[in-house]
Design a protein that fits this description.
The protein is of the alpha/beta class and 212 residues long. The chain has two domains: 2-25 and 83-211, 3-Layer(aba) Sandwich (Rossmann fold); 27-79, no CATH class. Helices cover 39% and strands 16% of the residues. The protein has nine helices and nine strands. The protein has a seven-stranded mixed sheet, with helices on both faces. Helix 1 packs across helix 2 (45-57) and helix 2 (45-57) crosses helix 3 (62-70). It starts with a strand and ends with a helix.
Length: 212
């Protein structure tokens, strides 16, 4: 866990989370996607993985850039391969005892239904998803929608996400407190500007409980 700024978690009312690679482990989904791309392009899975990884290290969407590079069709997203991180439920349960919990995520239609199927919707007070709202991160408007519905000022809200570009930069620009959770491929992002620096960096959801 990396501590960036001090005394920032005072007067917090809402804690907002991204979904993919934040609450939900998408590792298997990406693995299957890369296997399918490898089969279609007639190359090895290892080649696909390493190529995508290099793109991620350049702050690009590695799987999509690799698909574009090989000029193959993007495989469908396999929701059935998503699972919760082992710390997800405990984190949400404990935080919900003290804070309002929200979701701000780029997701397909039916986000609330999926969160309910995972058994965690009971801890969440507000779900703002791109498909339903017609606006997606990193557009600041989706954060503004969430804050307006929560009746919460930015300085009283925390955004937790794995993506610097989608989660940290826009939330920070609005005045929200930020926690970068270094899970999934988002952990390879290279910080280069002040606008990309989160208030805290954590490696898993359990570490968030030590902060707030």
């Amino acid at each position: 866990m990396a501590f960036i700024r001090g005394d920032i978690m005072e007067n917090v009312q809402w804690v907002f989370f991204d979904v993919g690679s934040t609450l939900v482990d998408e590792s298997k989904v990406y693995e299957e996607r890369m296997k399918e791309v490898a089969k279609t392009a007639n190359v090895s899975y290892e080649y696909i993985y390493q190529t995508a990884l290099e793109f991620y290290k350049e702050n690009k969407k590695g799987d999509l850039e690799t698909i574009k590079l090989l000029n193959v069709k993007k495989p469908e997203w396999r929701f059935e391969d998503e699972i919760l991180y082992s710390e997800t439920e405990e984190c949400l349960r404990k935080l919900s005892e003290k804070y309002n919990i929200g979701v701000i995520a780029n997701q397909s239609l039916g986000t609330e239904k999926r969160l309910k199927a995972f058994g965690i919707l009971q801890y969440i007070n507000l779900v703002i998803a791109s498909a339903e709202e017609g606006v997606a991160k990193p557009d600041k408007r989706i954060f503004e929608i969430a804050l307006n519905r929560a009746i919460c000022k930015p300085q009283h809200a925390v955004m937790v996400g794995d993506r610097i570009d989608n989660d940290i930069i826009p939330a920070k620009a609005l005045g929200m407190k930020t926690i970068w959770i270094k899970q999934g491929f988002g952990k390879y992002w290279k910080i280069s500007t002040e606008s990309e620096k989160a208030d805290y960096e954590v490696d898993n959801l359990s570490e968030i409980l030590e902060i707030i």
